[in-house]
Every structure is written in C-alpha cells, then in structure tokens.
Amino acid sequence: MTLNQLFKLARELQDKKQTVLAEELGKSSSAISKFEKGQSTLAEDTLQELAIMLNLNPAYITGASSNPFFSRELIKMHLPEEEFGIKIVFTPIMLIAEASQRMEVITLLPARKFRFMEKIEEGKLIEPPTYAIAVQDEDNNIFLFRRKSSSGYIMADRGLLAQLDELGAQTGKDIRLHTRKLTRTLFERIRDWEVTREDIEPYFSNRQPQDITEAEQLLIMTLRQKRIDPESIRQNLE
Question: 3-state DSSP call for residue 201?
C-alpha cells in the first residue's frame, strides 16, 4: 500500500472529511484530494501534521518505524464494505497484523441472544453475531472496528480469524484471538460511537501495567520504533 493510499484509507475509515482536515492544516481540500489520488505530494511537515490528525505514525513517514499507526487514544474505524454493503473487507486489520509481531484481536458480541435464534434444532443456542472487533498491536495502539451502520453486524469474521491464524503460523507472529461479550452499557457506547480507549482496554489480556506513566509508554514506543535494544541501554546506565 502506497503512502497516499494509506492516508486515504485512514481518513475514510474514520469518517474524516477532506474539507475539515484542509481547514485545520491551512491548505486547500484539492491539495489533499490530489495527494490521495497520487497526483501530487505534500510537504513533509504537512504530512506529519496530517498523520497525527488521522492517528497515523509520523515515524512511519520517515522510515523510522514499520508501524503505520500511532495514537494514545482509541482509534475508531468503520470496516470497508463492498458489493452494496454485502461484503465486509478486513484490509485495515490485516494491515495492522502485517506490521506487528505481536497483537491481540477480540471479537465483541452483544450479551443477549436474539429472538430468532432461540428456536434452534435440538435445543442448541447460537451465539449472536459479532458486533465489533477490538485490536491491540505491539506498540499498544488500540483499535475498534464496527460497521458503518450502527445496526449492522459483522457476519464474516470467521474468514478474518482464519487469515490471522494462517499468518501467525506462516510468520511466527504472536497473534492472540479471543471472544468477549459486551455489557449492555458498552454495547450502547459502541453503537453510539462514544466509546473510549478506557472502555475497551480492560478487555485485553496483555495491556500495559496500570502504573506505567505516559512518558514511559512513549519511551517504549521510541525504543521499538528505532529498534534499540533496551538491554544495551540498561547496561550503559549501570
């Protein structure tokens, strides 16, 4: 994926308008449009500003990091859809997986059963379909994916989980897959798109210790981005 394609994908999946971004940057919307189409470039300082607005990693632009995303807030995205909303595309989740050696993926289900699922042959109950997918990458970015329609469910997530399993087996990546049930309150917060990082983070098993400071988190990020061996730094400090 080219840089302009990445910026376009991140903008569209977060429902951010070119006109709004252009106004905040002090640029014309046509400048962003041409950049996204690959018809022109943007100055590096403009790219850095735009990256932050889109929860992209400024270090990725300069080649100092292999991770295209960075944010200490929850990165909320709507999954791409094709064929008039029939087919869900998991491109952004696979992009995260390819950039991370370690990640955790959680399919989030509504706690209730649906009425039409109650009458199942042999008395067996079927789990409700996935409503959202939460992802945490190795740099402690946390993402939440949902369909654009707040009433839509993710019916094809088994294909995604199979792809992630295969990727982990082929590359040795540590990809952990879990399923969690949402509380009614959190379901409603996701539905209304008012959900925050603090709402989602407790669902992960490998989240950062509670007593780590923001400065310490940024230091860890810098070490990983620049691929610096922390053991060598520790030895120099002794």
Answer: helix
